[in-house]
């Protein structure tokens, strides 16, 4: 059993919990996820099984799309609805649609973001949430993120001196959407937090193609689970592709350095190339050689030992 499962992660489970459950369901230790989702967040979580665990690093997509709800009027320790309230300000007068759209538009492009205290970012060898749980506030390094889409999805609800609305964001890897919600609130002049979040896309992996755990269990019971998985080759379809003759297959299996075809010469050093056999099975990941630019060297050998 090997391949990539597109899981529709349920609320209430960490990404690690999902991996642990898949190990039991699939009866294999070789399971890994491709990007952490907070327990309250649902949506696209690609999970690798068997040999596919070797390609996890190539599936941590550069861009992701989320649909979120923001609540404006109070902020929390965790920047989402699971935290304790730390600041409140009645929303009065009501925020207009034009004001919200202006703020959303102003945040498209490259912006600076400071990771939240309740996050897995490491500072001086410890994860930020470890400091947060100990009640210690530390200086956090800012990062540049890219917002390529940020649009209003819903009507604006003004009730009980709070304002709520939903938005869709497509952003670069490493973006904290709950922090983005706080930033939106700040630009509107109020404390805010993220009150709901679902990841709808991770790279080209779409929520509509994901399975729930219930569907996974049904597929395993019926013997159709392997058919539910993306093959390694399908999962890597966005990488530059090189198809080799079977005469080179043994060399690839043994991790040999190969000539870099002319049509790959413009690639950056270290850029991954998916190498396929004549049967379209992905055999290995190669990369342009760091010093001998007419050659490429293996970074991952994926084919079976047999």
UniProtKB/TrEMBL annotation:
Say which domain of life the source belongs to: Bacteria
Any one GO biological process: tRNA pseudouridine synthesis
* Family to which this protein belongs: Belongs to the pseudouridine synthase TruB family. Type 1 subfamily.
Q: Which UniProt keywords apply?
A: Isomerase, tRNA processing
The gene for this chain is truB
- Gene3D superfamilies the UniProt entry points to: Pseudouridine synthase
What species was this sequence derived from?
Answer: Metabacillus sediminilitoris
**What's the name of the protein?**
tRNA pseudouridine synthase B
Q: What's its top-level EC category?
A: isomerase
List residues of the Pseudouridine synthase II N-terminal domain. 23-177
- Name the active site residues: 38
């Amino acid at each position: 059993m090997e391949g990539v499962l597109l899981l529709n992660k349920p609320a209430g489970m960490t990404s690690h919990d999902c991996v642990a459950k898949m190990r039991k369901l699939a009866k294999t230790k070789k399971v890994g996820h491709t990007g952490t989702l907070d327990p309250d967040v649902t949506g696209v979580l690609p999970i690798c099984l068997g040999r596919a665990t070797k390609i996890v690093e190539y599936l941590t997509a550069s861009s992701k799309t989320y649909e979120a709800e923001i609540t404006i009027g109070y902020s929390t320790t965790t920047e989402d609805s699971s935290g304790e309230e730390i600041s409140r300000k009645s929303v009065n007068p009501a925020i207009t649609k034009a004001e919200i759209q202006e703020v959303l538009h102003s945040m498209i492009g490259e912006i600076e973001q400071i990771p939240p205290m309740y996050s897995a970012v490491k500072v001086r060898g410890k994860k930020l949430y470890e400091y947060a749980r100990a009640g210690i506030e530390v200086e956090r390094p800012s990062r540049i993120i890219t917002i390529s889409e940020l649009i209003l999805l819903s009507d604006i609800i003004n009730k009980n001196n709070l304002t709520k609305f939903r938005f869709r964001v497509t952003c670069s890897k490493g973006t904290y959407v709950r922090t983005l919600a706080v930033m939106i609130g700040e630009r509107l002049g109020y404390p805010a937090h993220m009150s709901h979040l679902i990841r709808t896309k991770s790279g080209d992996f779409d929520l509509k193609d994901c399975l729930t755990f219930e569907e996974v269990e049904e597929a395993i019971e019926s013997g159709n689970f392997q058919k539910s998985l993306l093959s390694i080759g399908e999962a890597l379809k966005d990488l530059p592709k090189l198809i080799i003759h079977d005469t080179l297959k043994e060399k690839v299996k043994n991790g040999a350095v190969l000539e870099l075809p002319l049509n790959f010469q413009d690639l950056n050093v270290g850029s991954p190339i998916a190498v396929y056999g004549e049967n379209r099975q992905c055999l290995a990941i190669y990369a342009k050689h760091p010093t001998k630019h007419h050659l490429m060297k293996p970074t991952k050998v994926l084919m079976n030992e047999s």
